[in-house]
Amino acid sequence: MSAAIELDGVSARYGAATVLHDVTIAVPLHRITAVTGHNGSGKSTLLGVLAGVHPPASGSLRRSHSGRAAFVVQRSDAADALPITVRQTVAMGRWAHRGPWRPLTRDDRSIVDRCMDRLGVADLAARRLGTLSGGQRQRVLLAQGLAQQSDLLILDEPSTGLDAAAKDAITAVLAEERARGTTIVHATHDPADAAEADHHLALAHGRIAPAPVPGGSR
Ligand SMILES: Nc1ncnc2c1ncn2[C@@H]1O[C@H](COP(=O)(O)OP(=O)(O)OP(=O)(O)O)[C@@H](O)[C@H]1O
User: Fold this and answer.
1) Are 47 and 27 in contact (CB under 8 A)?
2) Among the four 43, 98, 150, 166, which has the fewest Cβ within 10 Å?
3) Got the DSSP string for 184-214?
4) How far apart are CA 176 and CA 191, in angstroms?
5) Cα 120 to averaged position of ligand 1 atoms, centre (Å)
6) What angle do CA 71, 131, 69 make, to 5 degrees?
7) Quick one: DSSP state of residue 215?
8) Which residues lie below 8 Å from residue 106, measured CB to CB, with a gap of 6+?
9) Helix, coil or strand: residue 39
10) For residue 183, what are the β-bridge partners?
11) Which of 41, 54, 157, 159, when mutated, tests ligand 1's pocket best, judged by the most ligand atoms within 8 Å of its CB?
12) Which of 11, 23, 43 to mutate to test the pocket of ligand 1 (most atoms within 8 A of CB)?
């Protein structure tokens, strides 16, 4: 199976603190990879490295994608405070194609509508982002990630804190994206998500750990 991204002996730091150590992995192309690990094990940092926003301190990184990754981070309070609507937030996903503040084309608008539909937030389109619940905001940010139509989708705990219906919607969206040939990497605390993924990377204290046996004790 060919790799979308390969890391070889990668470490990553915040200032003097090394939080990823000697990570050698291959992320399979067109597949779903789940990243698991306890709080602070380095999942978000690894996703940042894979997305190209956190340069490795050492080691090498090789990617087969030429475009920019769509990277959906965990909910940020700063973004929530922006005085923009749900539709405008999702439309920002088109900036990668259109450039910031350029008028959207008819195609862009239909992509934005479709992404809001897929995440069940179309009825919230005119609401200010800051007035939404945490789970609603999370779905809006995912819709923004989808609107980028990148062939590499990196999601930091997309289902954490969501109700069962929203979780199911996200599972369905990921399966649809995979079927389109998108490479997906997502961090999760849910063992069921990890078991369903094509590939599982477990992190412990910033190092790749042996993946737990499905169905085994954890
Ligand atoms: N901006 C930062 N500055 C300094 N240290 C950081 C920063 N972000 C994360 N860290 C540290 O890096 C380590 C890995 O954090 P990371 O956010 O990658 O873990 P995580 O597995 O995603 O955790 P969680 O499950 O809580 O989201 C932790 O020890 C954390 O304290």
Assistant:
1) no
2) 98
3) EEEE-S-HHHHHHSSEEEEEETTEEEPPPPT
4) 21
5) 30
6) 5
7) T
8) none
9) coil
10) 152
11) 41
12) 43
ipTM of predicted complex = 0.97
Name the CA dihedral angle for 127, 147, 50, 192, rounded to a multiple of 10 degrees: 70
39 C-alpha to ligand 1 centroid (Å)? 8
| Token duo for residue 189 | 């605390």
Beta carbon of 48 within 6 Å of any ligand 1 atom? no
Find out whether 41 and 206 touch, Cβ atoms under 8 Å.
yes
Residues near 53 by beta carbon (within 8 Å), at least 6 away in sequence = 71
Please give the model's pTM, rounded to 2 decimal places: 0.92
204 pocket-lining for ligand 1 (C-beta < 6 Å): no
What residue owns the CA closest to ligand 1's atom 5? 14
Q: Is the CB of 45 under 6 A from ligand 1?
A: yes
